[in-house]
Structures are given as structure tokens and as C-alpha cells.
Write a structure and sequence with these properties.
single chain; alpha+beta; 5-stranded antiparallel β-sheet; 4-stranded antiparallel β-sheet; 13 strands; flat
Length: 334
């Protein structure tokens, strides 16, 4: 309120306090050694917890990705060229199988310009059941049967890798996901379907959420205050995530540890000498952690449909678009 009155005194319009913003220039930098596979750590500086939490929420709910949204199953009885009769049944109901298909990470390429089905220029004027074209969906098929009548095995497992991409081959299921099991087929059973992947957002369904294990913590540094008493920790033979011994050598000449990965490892190690361990008296706060102002370590892991870089940049783009729209709304209102 004081800020609002000051702005009015200086000639600003009499806006409500809730419309007065001070936006800091946040900086993002990937922590050394990351990403590791689909997981990453990012150092965010010149920011606050509210802004970092906005990125977290955007990653969960707003970043678009592809996921199988519709499955057309073939049902009935078939006969192969040897006269064996096959039925379209398996151990899982179609609804459960469709859900398993929906949770398979579908490779997503934001730069390819795939449209949302309700905004596709080719389909926007069509009825809902008629929507779907190469610009707004990716098509897969699967045709599998159980073991033949004279086979030694009694069943066959169907995997995500058995999906065939009818659209561009760049959407083939990635190698790391091909061994995701879908169902089991016994003798005399077959499974055939077409599956359609479309863009969506996590706020509509979990299958469209590109990331998990999203969290952040204040950036900290570790201070070695009492080297002799710190032996209560160093003597336990603990190691950092990259294999280094947790001992006095981790600390610089100023007895300070600043490496982000090692500080996180140290934070976990301190639980071994904390309250309830029986070692807290000998340790006597020999090592303490201090927070760095306006700096946070942001971590998450994608499901593999997007790279960590693509997911993070997607979240930033979503936030930028949201605030640009907000700015336009405010300008129109005043």
C-alpha cells in the first residue's frame, strides 16, 4: 500500500497494490555434471521462491507433450492361414490397456510445430470425431498374436516396442522405453489396434505431464568450523555421489565448500551425525550450512518424451506467454 501511494505521488495511475510488480532478472545455469540421462539440476539466481515455484508449477501443468489419447481396438474372431482361430481377448480389459498406452512416453519435438487438435488449422472447423491429421496427431499401430498352438511357450508378452509408427519415424518409441510391458497374449489370442497421440498439458491429465520429482532448495555452502570434531563424520567413510571421500579435502583453503553437488551430498551426510544418532555431541556442529541469498537449486526428471532442456525451456516459454497476456489485459483495463 505504501508503494502504491508513492507511485501515485510520483504521477503513476492509482492502480491497486496487487497490480504493482517488481520483476527481477532471473538467471539459470545448469549445474556442472548435469543433466544425467533425463534428470537435471539447474542453479537459479537473482530470484525468489515464488518465481521458482511458478516454474515448478508450469513444468507440472503447462508444458505440452504428446501422449496417446485414443485407441481403436479390433475386436472379434480371426482365422490365420493355417486355420487356427484367434480371438481378440487378453488378460487386461481394453480400458486398462488404453491407460497403459497413454502412459508410454511419446517422443515430442516442440520445434516441429505439432498443433493442438482444437487449434489445428486443418481441423479447427471439423466435428470432434472427425478431427485428426498429420499436423495435430501421431498415428501408431500394433498387430500381435499369442504363441502358435504347437509352440512350447504358453504366452507372449507385448511390449511398447511392438508399436509401429505410421507417421514420421522420428516418433518411434525410444529404445529406453521399448521394454515397457503392455499385456500378455496366450495361445489363440490376438491384439490389433490403432493408437492416436495428440498434444496436451499435465493440468488435463497425468499422461501429458512431461516431468516428475520436481523440487527446489535454497543454494547452500558448507563451512568447516571445527576440523577435529568433524572427524565424527569423516571417520564414517562416506562418499559423494561422484565417488570422492567426504573429508576435509573437499573444503577449500578458506574451509568452505561451494560445489553444489558436493554440498547436497554433505547435507545428506550430516544426517549421520544429527539428532538421534548418538554422534551429535561429538560432532558439535563442526560443519554448518549457510544459505546463499536469492539462489535456488532446481531439480527434476522428465519421462523421456522431452529432454530436460526442452522441458525447462517450455516452462519458461509458457510463463513468458502468460505474463505477456497479463500485461495486455492490464493495458486494456486501464
Amino acid at each position: 500500500a505504501n508503494r502504491s501511494r508513492r507511485y501515485q505521488k510520483e504521477g503513476w495511475p492509482p492502480w491497486p497494490p496487487c497490480l504493482i510488480f517488481e520483476v527481477e532478472k532471473m538467471e539459470a545455469k545448469t549445474v556442472e555434471g548435469w543433466p544425467q540421462g533425463n534428470a537435471t539440476r539447474i542453479l537459479l539466481t537473482d530470484t525468489d521462491a515464488a518465481q521458482v515455484n511458478a516454474i515448478r508449477r508450469a513444468l507440472i501443468a503447462d508444458v505440452p507433450k504428446l501422449a496417446i489419447n485414443r485407441v481403436d481396438f479390433s475386436q472379434g474372431v480371426n482365422q490365420d492361414n493355417k486355420g487356427e482361430v484367434l480371438e481378440s481377448v487378453n488378460v487386461l480389459p481394453d480400458e486398462i490397456l488404453a491407460h497403459r498406452l497413454a502412459m508410454i512416453p511419446i517422443p515430442t519435438f516442440p520445434e516441429e510445430g505439432i498443433h493442438f487438435s482444437d487449434a489445428c488449422p486443418n481441423c479447427i472447423d471439423l466435428a470432434e470425431e472427425s478431427k485428426g491429421c498429420p499436423s495435430c496427431q501421431v498415428l501408431y499401430s500394433l498387430s500381435a498374436r499369442g504363441p502358435t498352438a504347437d509352440a512350447e511357450e504358453d504366452y507372449k508378452t507385448v511390449y511398447a516396442g511392438d508399436l509401429t509408427t505410421i507417421s514420421d519415424q522420428m516418433f518411434d518409441i525410444r529404445d529406453e522405453h521399448k521394454r515397457i510391458p503392455l499385456t500378455i497374449l496366450s495361445k489363440g489370442q490376438f491384439l490389433e489396434f490403432y493408437a492416436f497421440a495428440t498434444l496436451g498439458r499435465g493440468r488435463d491429465h497425468a499422461k501429458w505431464a512431461p516431468a516428475a520429482a520436481i523440487g527446489f532448495r535454497p543454494q547452500r555452502i558448507a563451512k568447516l568450523n571445527k576440523p577435529k570434531k568433524a572427524e565424527a563424520l569423516f571417520g564414517l567413510g562416506l562418499k559423494t555421489s561422484d565417488g570422492k571421500n567426504i573429508d576435509a579435502k573437499l573444503f577449500g583453503k578458506d574451509k568452505t565448500l561451494t560445489d553444489i553437488n558436493h554440498v547436497i551430498d554433505m547435507e545428506a551426510a550430516l544426517h549421520q551425525v544429527g539428532p538421534g544418532t548418538g554422534r551429535e555431541g561429538d560432532f558439535d556442529d563442526a560443519i554448518t550450512l549457510e544459505e546463499v541469498d536469492h539462489a535456488y537449486v532446481f531439480s527434476f526428471e522428465t519421462d523421456g518424451s522431452l529432454t530436460p532442456e526442452q522441458a525447462f525451456n517450455g516452462a519458461m516459454d509458457e510463463l513468458q506467454s502468460r505474463f505477456e497476456n497479463l500485461t495486455g489485459d492490464i493495458e486494456r483495463a486501464f
